[in-house]
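Subject: Protein record for review, amino acid sequence with backbone structure tokens
Category: Structural biology, sequence-to-fold work with a learned token vocabulary.
Format: Residues in single-letter code; tokens as whole numbers, each standing for a residue.
Body of memo: The sequence and its backbone structure tokens, given next.
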Amino acid sequence: MPQQRVYHDYVNEKLVPYWYVLTFKPCEIDWDKSVLYYDVIKPFDYIERDQFDESIITFSLKISDFLVNRDYPNKLGINIKMIKSRISENGIDPYVVHQFILPYPDVEEVLHLVPNDRKIELLL
């Protein structure tokens, strides 16, 4: 499961999100799959923008890369197939990308996709 962080700054003494960042361990992304679903865990770690680790190879996401599926409650999906295609178009080997970043203002839109209440499935 990726590490989820929201990088922010303070503007007029208000917390303003700038980036929603998903950081993966090496080989954690299965680039042969179409979609990767991951657990959304709130509250997120809020980190100041100047602490962003630029040494990790990062690729920018679009809001259209995110998927919600009723069959996967409390999870967000990312369209790996579409992301891999864009990465390859840029001449980058997808296997070296270990971090995705979603810039503001799309951050707020994605945060609205995240359920406020976690639902627990009981398997009897």
About this structure: Residues 80-89 form the longest helix (10 residues). The CA atoms of residues 40 and 74 lie 6 Å apart.
